[in-house]
């Protein structure tokens, strides 16, 4: 790490939420470590992992601050517990399946200095082979629920550019939470993540809340990370998709309560259309197309969740019981 990057890094603390991260967690922590970056600036919040990821971390990188929830408290609740330990000027939220590039510190610190109303900064997310991932997102809107994504990009290319290719900082509506830098003074004004969100869209609601209070969100291409893109969620595809539907409805209820009933009707209609359409396609292919069969199975489980009244106990595993206090929180 260069001297300037070291000085920039020392203005940050890092919060990493872990859930069965395995080797990915260790790789993530090593990507933000340096000889001069204090280990106690790296805060790992474990959401009840059942693998050996925390033992491996403690053995390989002693000195990191470790907070154990004992159960899956969700992303927002875990991040907030980590942020409560932060005493630095800025915090960097980094997914446990991401690896930060060494020069990201300079880029993020410089952007915070030159953009005084920036509450949040995101970076460029890359696959292992260097291809771009989605790094920015538009706020969810009912119009977007009704139109195909290809048409949205054609009608509003600036708003729905998930993978910006330019090198200049870009003001956006929201950013993907895999690499998410936070100005702590801004959070003191409008509050931490909303813990009603368990998984998905918590960072989108946070960006929306900041926006309504005059703060800004920026995409900083020079801050880069390689990201495995939801490696944990992919292990539980149908359950993760149900969590996404739950969070999307919650987002509309919180940000546009007058249009919540309409958003629910649209979501249910789309779920039924997708499930029945893909089930028909799977039938026409006699179930011999694995991808079609798998997609139909996932969509039918989502529709069943709606028809059962969206039970709260259906979703990703190992959730903390509602109302249970977290140890040490």
Topology:
Blueprint (H helix, E strand, L loop, with lengths): L2 H7 L2 E7 L4 H10 L9 E5 L6 H8 L4 E4 L6 H9 L6 E5 L3 E3 L3 H11 L3 E9 L9 E2 L4 H5 L2 H7 L14 E3 L1 E2 L3 E5 H7 L11 H11 L3 E12 L3 H4 L2 H19 L4 H25 L5 H18 L22
Parallel strand pairs: 1-2, 1-4, 2-3, 6-11
Antiparallel strand pairs: 4-10, 5-11, 6-10, 7-9, 8-11
Helix pairs in contact: 1-5, 2-3, 9-11, 11-12, 11-13, 12-13
Total helix count? Answer: 13
> What fraction strand?
15-25%
How many distinct domains? 2
CATH homologous superfamily caption of the largest domain: Spore Coat Polysaccharide Biosynthesis Protein SpsA, Chain A
Measured between the Cα atoms of the first and last residue, the distance is: 34 Å
Characterize the largest beta sheet: strand count, sense, and whether it forms a barrel: 9 strands, mixed
- CATH fold naming of the largest domain: Spore Coat Polysaccharide Biosynthesis Protein SpsA, Chain A
Strand tally: 11
Structural class: alpha/beta
N-to-C SSE string, H for helix and E for strand: HEHEHEHEEHEEHHEEEHHEHHHH
Unreliable sequence segments:
none
């Amino acid at each position: 790490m260069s001297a300037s990057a070291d000085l920039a890094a020392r203005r940050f603390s890092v919060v990493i939420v872990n859930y069965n991260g395995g080797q990915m967690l260790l790789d993530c922590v090593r990507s933000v470590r340096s000889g001069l970056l204090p280990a106690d600036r790296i805060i790992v919040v474990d959401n009840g992992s059942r693998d050996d990821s925390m033992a491996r971390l403690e053995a390989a990188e002693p000195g990191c601050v470790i907070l154990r929830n004992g159960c899956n408290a969700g992303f927002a609740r875990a991040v907030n517990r980590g942020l409560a330990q932060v005493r630095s000027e800025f915090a960097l939220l980094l997914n446990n399946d991401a690896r930060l590039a060494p020069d990201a510190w300079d880029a993020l610190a410089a952007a915070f200095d030159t953009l005084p109303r920036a509450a949040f900064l995101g970076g460029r997310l890359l696959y292992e082979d260097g291809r771009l991932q989605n790094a920015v997102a538009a706020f969810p809107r009912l119009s977007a629920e009704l139109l195909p994504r290809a048409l949205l990009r054609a009608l509003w290319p600036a708003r729905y550019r998930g993978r910006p290719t330019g090198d200049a900082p870009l003001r956006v509506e929201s950013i993907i939470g895999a690499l998410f830098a936070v100005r702590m003074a801004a959070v003191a004004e409008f509050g931490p993540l909303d813990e009603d969100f368990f998984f998905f869209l918590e960072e989108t609601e946070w960006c929306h809340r900041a926006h309504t209070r005059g703060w800004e969100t920026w995409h900083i291409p020079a801050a880069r990370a390689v990201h495995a893109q939801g490696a944990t969620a992919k292990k539980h595809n149908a359950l993760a998709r149900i969590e996404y539907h739950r969070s999307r409805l919650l987002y509309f209820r919180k940000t546009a309560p007058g249009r919540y009933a309409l958003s629910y009707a649209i979501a249910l209609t789309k779920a039924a259309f997708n499930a029945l359409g893909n089930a028909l396609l799977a039938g026409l292919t006699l179930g011999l197309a694995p991808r079609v069969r798998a997609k139909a199975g996932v969509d039918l489980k989502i529709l069943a969740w709606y028809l059962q009244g969206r039970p709260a106990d259906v979703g990703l595993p190992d959730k903390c019981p509602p109302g249970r206090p977290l140890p040490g929180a």
